[in-house]
Amino acid sequence: MKRVLSGIQPSGKITLGNYIGALKNFVTLQDDYTCNFMVVDLHAITVPQDPADLREQSEAVAALFVAAGIDPNKANVYMQSHVRQHAQLGWLLTTLTSMGELERMTQFKDKAAGKESVGAGLFVYPALMAADILIYNADLVPVGEDQKQHLELTRDLAGRFNHRFGDYFTIPEPYIPKVGARIMSLDDASKKMSKSNPNAGSAIYLLDSPDEIRKKISRATTDSGREVKFEPATKPEVSNLITIYSQCSGMSVAEVEQRYEGQMYGPFKKDLAEVVVGALEPIQQRYRDIRESGEIRSILRQGAERASEMAEKTLRDVQQLMGFLPE
Ligand code: TYM
Q1: Among residues 111, 216, 235, 269, which one is catalytic?
Q2: CATH for 3-180+295-322?
Q3: Which residues pair with 173 in a beta bridge?
Q4: Which of 56, 111, 239, 283 could potentially form a cystine with 232 if both were Cys, beta carbons 3.0 to 4.6 Å apart?
Q5: How far is the CA of 61 from the centre of ligand 1 (A)?
Q6: Is 313 marked active-site?
């Protein structure tokens, strides 16, 4: 069976953008691939984290994976730090990565912009991400659009390794959804919806209450026009809301446009809020059940155990190919 790997950071609350761009697709892929889905705590600490928050968010995100529909008997769900081989391969790949390549990463440039001091971890982060993927020889990596550049670097590093040390790594393909790969902020459609945006009204979080969701959607910016039409270049705000509607209802973009033909933004937004509430309610219910049951720790343990087996084999092969003495 072909292999899938992806991860989500436990920094801040996970957003509807994370869900539509990534998590929802994890669930779809689990039936046809050998899947590894991790909560990437090693990546989260590339910016400062409060230890208690990190612990809580790690467990919350893992529980959300399962609540969203990942079946731990089909896919491995685990913490990145519990599979130690990620960090080990990360170091090996860092030595194959050039400073220039890392300097070109737009996510690094965005996160480092205006900072007086930037952590070295933030800089080398993409080499660790490459290790996450290559350690399982993943064929497919479901991600949102913002991770595309990191995927390209991963492909380059795999090719470089294969060229220098022998054909070993699979060159992974990104799996980026056609609709919903970049959900935008509710208050500013030029920015992606993001966990790190300090304005809580800019993002819908998966654990927002129905009333919070209704309030955020009713306040979402639109334009001075009147048509519910999908035209990202000229109507970015409304197009973003249509995308969310489509992704949370299962209707196509064209079907959403048709349904609201001749209607104003008010009724469209009202319905959208109910569509989002309806999509998130069952996830929230399952989330509460999973947290109460306390089963997440054993799910993570089992996931890490299975993932480690695959990862250890790769690490040994890679060390041998690179010329390390066997233990
Ligand atoms: P992170 O935690 O920022 O985001 C998790 C996933 O959500 C997607 N995403 C979005 N998709 C659509 N619209 C948005 N507004 C939006 N915001 C986020 C991201 O593209 C991502 O797929 N570096 C990664 C985590 C990572 C990883 C990996 C991913 C570490 N190792 C290996 C894949 C494979 C990150 O920071 O994602």
Answers
A1: 111
A2: 3.40.50.620
A3: 140
A4: 239
A5: 13
A6: no
